[in-house]
Amino acid sequence: MQKPKARSLDKAKQDVDAYALDDAPGFLLRVALRTHTAIFTAKMIEGLTGPQFSTLAKLREVGPCSQNHLGRLIHYDSATITGVITRLKSRGFIKSYPDPLDPRRREIDLTDKGRRVADAAIATIDDISSETFAPLTQQEYRTLTQILKKIIHR
User: Fold this and answer.
1) Are 56 and 88 in contact (CB under 8 A)?
2) Where do the H-state alpha helices sit in the chain?
3) Would residue 96 count as lying in a domain?
């Protein structure tokens, strides 16, 4: 009975001894995100943040929707999407109005100015992604995208 515990302790010690932070996927994701964020911040138009860009791009893609639905689509919690919406509204990029089917809800949509900014930002993101992922071949880029989607949508 004692031997399995000893073996599992030995295995745990071997795992600890063999651990290399530079080979840890979570660590590598964080560093890659930091690299992408630096490029994004330097090149994105209108001083848009990542959450602001995601909000404008998703509204451009899906059209008017509720704030809750929009938050779910871009994986932001209620507090985050509320703050993003407030800041984008104050800049004149989005508007809200009562949902025609349910007056208790509010629909969020792009203003004309917001649509122009969203279109320009989407055009800019191509340059940002090209720089971020320049070391990858097209196949590696597709594979990375598939792997990330698999992690997100499990």
Assistant:
1) yes
2) 2-18, 25-43, 50-62, 67-73, 78-90, 112-132, 138-152
3) yes
Q: How many CB atoms lie within 10 A of CB 81?
A: 23
Residue 90 is predicted with a pLDDT of 98
Total Cβ atoms within 10 A of residue 85: 21
| pLDDT at residue 2, as a whole number | 52
Supply the pTM of this predicted model.
0.85
Question: Is 8 inside a domain boundary?
Answer: no
CATH no. for residue 65?
1.10.10.10
In terms of residue numbers, what domain contains 138? 46-154
pLDDT digits (tens, 9 = 90+) for 16-68: 888 999 999 999 999 999 999 999 999 999 999 999 999 999 999 999 999 99
DSSP 82: H
Q: Count how many domains the chain has.
A: 1
